[in-house]
Description:
This protein is of the alpha/beta class. It has 2 domains: 5-234 and 453-462, 3-Layer(aba) Sandwich (Rossmann fold), CATH 3.40.50.2000; 238-446, Glycogen Phosphorylase B (Rossmann fold), CATH 3.40.50. Helix content is 44%, strand content 21%. The protein has helices at residues 34-45, 78-97, 108-128, 145-152, 169-172, 178-185, 196-210, 238-246, 248-260, 280-292, 315-335, 352-361, 376-384, 415-427, 430-446, 449-462, and strands at residues 5-13, 16-20, 26-30, 48-53, 64-66, 69-74, 129-138, 157-161, 190-193, 213-215, 218-220, 226-231, 266-273, 301-308, 343-346, 364-367, 391-395, 408-410. The strands form 3 sheets. A 10-stranded mixed β-sheet has the order 5-6-4-1-7-8-9-12-11-10, with helices on both faces. Strands 15-14-13-16-17-18 form a 6-stranded parallel β-sheet, sandwiched between helices. Helix 13 links the parallel strand 16 (364-367) and strand 17 (391-395). Helix 6 (178-185) packs across helix 7 and helix 9 crosses helix 12. The two termini are 43 Å apart. The protein binds GDP-alpha-D-glucose. Residues 32, 163-164, 234, 271, 273, 308, 349-352, 355, 372-377, 380 line the site of GDP-alpha-D-glucose.
Amino acid sequence: MAATADFVVIANRLPVDRVVQPDGSTTWRTSPGGLVTALEPVMRRNGGAWIGWHGAPDEKLRTFEHDGITLVPVHLTGQEYEEYYEGFSNATLWPLYHDVVAPPEFHREWWESYVEVNRRFAKKAARIARRNAVVWVQDYQLQLVPQMLRELRPDLRIGFFLHIPFPPNELFQQLPWRRSILEGLLGADLVGFQLPGAAQNFVRLVRQRVGHKTHRDTVYLEDGRTVTARAYPISIDAAGFEEMARRPEVVARAAEIRESLGNPRCVLLGIDRLDYTKGLRQRLRAFGELVTEGAVDVDDAVFVQVATPSRERVEQYRLLRDDIDRLVGRINGDVGRIGAQPITYLHASYPREEMAALYRAADVMVVTPLRDGMNLVAKEYVACRYDDDGALVLSEFAGAAAELRQAYRVNPYDINGLKEALLEAIRAPEKERTRRMKAMRKQVVENDIELWATRFLDDLRTVRHTHDKTPRP
Ligand code: GDG
């Protein structure tokens, strides 16, 4: 593998899925997602390379070209997948960074595997990046890569973006390897977060735990380097979603969905990965109580909950699935009637067009995470409502709440408050819905994923990289 790339993205997964043809041969298809959409043009312009795992354990693949981008597959053994990915990333870091809403597990073997795999990613990047190239590392699975890569290649400009929240010291300090993680991130020139609060948590932790001097968003290292920590709230391909939602077949499908639900007056919708951070339990309980109490008529309102299968081998996710199955069964059993089930629960994953049709079909979108870095579903719903109609109920603990100020805001832990917000959204007059939706649409359309990537990459190229070693912050 030669040094060929002036721009390198490193993420846990490659942006492609394998497709097996009827004759047994395999091809690759770009996986749908905002990040790929936003970065594709930048990659094409700069001879870009994307480093990531290709999705199959115990398989080694060579570097290949796909749609004008160089894809560099990283090999993971089955055991590494269990320890680095399911273990340390998803059963240690994920719950720890999301307010400990589930107990994080700490295992030394998982950590060792995390270090090992991070080193493999860093080495690949060191080999493929041209002199002075820009490297952008993505997310919590790869927090050690910036430092490992800097040791190998001090000439590179290294950026890091964390898609999930960054916890305050009170929680972060539980992590036995807390200092190594902070030092790993400090290998970057620019560390990006979803919200200013997360960037502040990081800078404060670096000062308290590693002892570096800091001033506002800048960390001054002893070797003369500086590291900047700022917020870059991620967004979506808003125009792409709107275009999809306007397609005649999507509009027709939205009508068909409402029809299959019995044309209720109000369709409420939740779409989430089946994850304990998303507040599914709270929202279903709140809706169930409204129906039981008669505030909402089962012939009048239907709740559609799509829960996309996720991390199914991790214990907390298995427990959650059983829990939600039981809860939905109980509510439907208690208050449903023949031909009228208050909750339509779908444990499945759908094509993007079907998602757009669901967004179009929903009068009230219910997004109630207990903690969420951003939450793209909330923004996708808004982007699809080109009719300026529909109401968004949004948790104040989602990053998106900072931008979508006209949503019906809720604290998902407060079931009564949640019930009130649901009722308010269900009963909102058209004028009120339009007023709120217009303002939210402006926000999402003006701040799309392309702008997010541009802002980050422009800053990465221009932030100060050195200081005179005697800062007077
Ligand atoms: C992490 C952070 C942050 C869901 N089901 C289907 C499907 N989806 C798509 C949605 C949306 C995406 O998955 C989910 O994104 P979220 O932002 O809602 O949540 P996470 O997966 O937890 O993402 C989060 C994000 O990273 C980006 O930085 O916002 O806070 O946790 O795009 O549409 N897509 C399709 N079928 C499904 O069934 N096609």
